[in-house]
Write a structure and sequence with these properties.
Elements lengths: L6 H12 L4 H8 L3 H10 L10 E4 L6 E4 L12 H8 E5 L6 E5 L13 H11 L1
Antiparallel strand pairs: 1-2, 3-4
Length: about 130
């Protein structure tokens, strides 16, 4: 069963890492497995160990988040939600006019866009 995480526990995790404690030591102090501690660290964007982290701004919401040297050039977004917002676009269905979302990377493959297969098939039948 997962233990709930409150603000005090998060602050304690950050404090222990600032004291140069290793992940395994921090997990033992809190009574977590190391895997669970890594899940908490990733979920709440907590800094691991006392590494030098640069603060980078999210290109979608502008929120600053820590980025470490190893993945500095790759990180653009503070969360997956911001990444989804930036990589998806709103389109209008070519048949029914309904708005729908599509990945930007898929836009180069077609000239007309459809919200569902039904609309696509109706469009084809109407064309014939």
């Amino acid at each position: 069963m997962r233990q709930t995480i409150n603000k005090d526990r998060l602050e304690l995790i950050v404090k222990l890492f600032k004291e140069d404690k290793k992940v395994k030591e921090v997990a033992n102090i809190l009574g977590f497995s190391t895997q669970r501690l890594y899940q908490i660290i990733n979920k709440y964007n907590l800094p691991k160990k006392n590494k030098k982290a640069k603060l980078k701004n999210c290109i979608v919401c502008g929120k600053s988040f820590p980025v470490y040297f190893s993945n500095e050039s790759l990180r653009k977004y503070c969360s997956r939600n911001c990444q989804k917002k930036d990589t998806r676009t709103v389109l209008l269905c070519s048949y029914c006019g309904k708005e729908f979302n599509r990945k930007k990377s898929l836009l180069k493959y077609a000239k007309k866009y459809f919200c569902s297969r039904e609309c696509y098939y109706c469009f084809l039948r109407k064309k014939v």
